[in-house]
Amino acid sequence: MESSVLQAIKQLGIDEMIEITDNISEADGFLALYSKLKKNSHIEAVAKSREIPIFVTKSTSLAQITKAIRALVNQHANLSKKIIEENEATSSEMIDALEEARLAIEQIVIPQGKSVQLLPRPPHIIQIQIGLIKKFKLKWEILDQDPTVCLRILPLQSGIREKTSVDVVDGSIKVKNLSSSDDIEGLQNGVARLPLLPE
């Protein structure tokens, strides 16, 4: 079967894209003859446990093997495209979040002396926004609007004291040095604001 696989790879012109390996842990895809896979169910179990896609052919004919390899390559290409798109989406969201914070600071917080509540963002994006706010030497508070979290940028003359640092733990934000729950101050919009102590 290996000679047919090599021939199919050469025929498809993807010699530089595919490498054959005997180590299943290194594989991006698993190509097997149906009759052999049926007799070796433990191999199938290992592939599934490692989330390696399995491509099965009924025979070792060049046509069937070529079809299976083409399917493997297409799936791998689609997965790579999805990862790239997700990374681009994260990058775009980061740029949007920074621009939102910058405009809020430059157009409202500093010139008008008013606080601005930013849109809910993932914890790692909020960390980046906080970095920008620090550069302007402004204060902020974290509003936990279950299941989302967002920032409110405070003007310099605000009486709110400096905040503690923010940790990202398992995708959620953890604020250090909170006072007891008896000190939680309610906001007009019904969201609880957690008072933060100075660093």
TrEMBL record:
GO CC annotations on file: chloroplast
Domain Phosphotyrosine protein phosphatase: 2-72
Entry-linked InterPro entries: PTPase_dom, R3H_AAA
One Pfam family per UniProt: PTPase
PANTHER family for the chain: KINASE-RELATED, P-LOOP CONTAINING NUCLEOSIDE TRIPHOSPHATE HYDROLASES SUPERFAMILY PROTEIN
Name the record gives this protein: Phosphotyrosine protein phosphatase domain-containing protein
